[in-house]
Amino acid sequence: MIHFATEQPPDAGTREALLDRVMGRARLFKPSERLRRGRRPADGLSLVARDGEALIGTVRLWHVNAGNAPALLLGPLAVDPAAQGTGVGAGLMRLAIARAEASGHRGIILVGDPEYYARFGFSADLTGSLAMPAPVERRRFLGLELAENGLTNGNGAVTPTGEPAVERVLLAA
Fold it and tell me: CB under 8 Å to 94, separation ≥6 — which residues?
């Protein structure tokens, strides 16, 4: 039975191995990775799917500014090849969108296949005045508004705004 949950720290190594299997190491050189590198994902918006104990899917959302509008960057979404086509990716997407909306976020952007993401409401119409940190295929640069005018007022470069990914050290008083 498939179970969706918030990613936990012990999931990190298994998640990276899944991403390597599904997307390869070339994923580390994509424009979206430039926005994620050195940042922590948004709290509560790193999700995994498990089949029993096996981690079979993952998605994360990251804080960015979409021009002058605060937003989230979704990705990467990955599902183990043996579980693709079973609804795991769609389940992760629905949960990620619902949690983002419940947390008060106004919009989500991503770079991905419009044929897949359109069913969740993503459209290239919302990103026409935005620019990623490196060129991307415009038809694949998609947005979803979670609130009225959540992205339509965004204009300019997409930049990272999330917390730096550094370990927090608590000092004893």
Answer: 120
Interval 130-144: pLDDT, tens: 999 999 999 999 999
To which H or E segment does residue 65 belong? strand 54-66
**What does the longest C-alpha to C-alpha distance in the chain come to?**
55
Which CATH class name applies to 2-159? alpha beta
CA-closest candidate to residue 46, choices 61, 27, 63, 64: 61
Q: Which residue has the tokens 């948004």?
A: 42
Does residue 97 carry a pLDDT above 60?
yes
Nearest to 63 by CA among 117, 14, 107: 107
CA–CA separation, 44 and 53 (whole Å):
21
